[in-house]
Amino acid sequence: MKAWFALTNGxxxxxIAAAEAGRGASGxxxxxxxxxxxxxxxxxxxxxxxxxxxxxxxxRKQLDALPCPDNIQNHFVVDPSxxxxxxxxxxxxVGDNDRARELSEEVIRAGTDFDNRERWPMRxxxxxxxxxxxxxRDGDLxxxxxxxxxxxxxxxxxxPSLAMVARDLGQVLADRYTGEQEATxxxxxxxxxxRPS
Length: 197
Prior knowledge:
This protein is an all-alpha fold. It folds into two domains: 1-78, no CATH class; 80-197, Alpha Horseshoe (Serine Threonine Protein Phosphatase 5, Tetratricopeptide repeat), CATH 1.25.40. Helices cover 74% and strands 0% of the residues. Helix 1 packs antiparallel against helix 2 (12-26). The mean pLDDT is 87.
């Protein structure tokens, strides 16, 4: 939890320190994989792509060596779908739109039941933000806003995480679409997430 709190507060060196300490205590459990993923996210936000990819590779190898988890609903259990979700975040942050988009689509597919019920609305919301970021970077403001609004309107539970990810889309919109009324309205919607209610 300390690594996640540090990540949502922008303390990336704190994420790495907490992840390293936690991995030493995690033994052969998937929570160690989750800590590696948090470390990769911190490296991505620090602009250290090589270290990010090394961490993602280490985490994937450790995950592949573990037995299939019994209860993927447990927050501290990592399955391949959850790991794709973490990698999606990393690739969005380093600007690899193709990888981020591909992983986003997989996260949405894996998180949606046959009847279109969202099993993991928090992951799906962040995947939609990622699709929005990729669309905005590709010059498609309308598509970016469609994905961004769907993310904010969904049945989301973790506002600190959603606000952190939504800021990525907000930054692209602020950089590339200054003066666009719809982009400005979305930026205000993002800001409202961060205000105390």
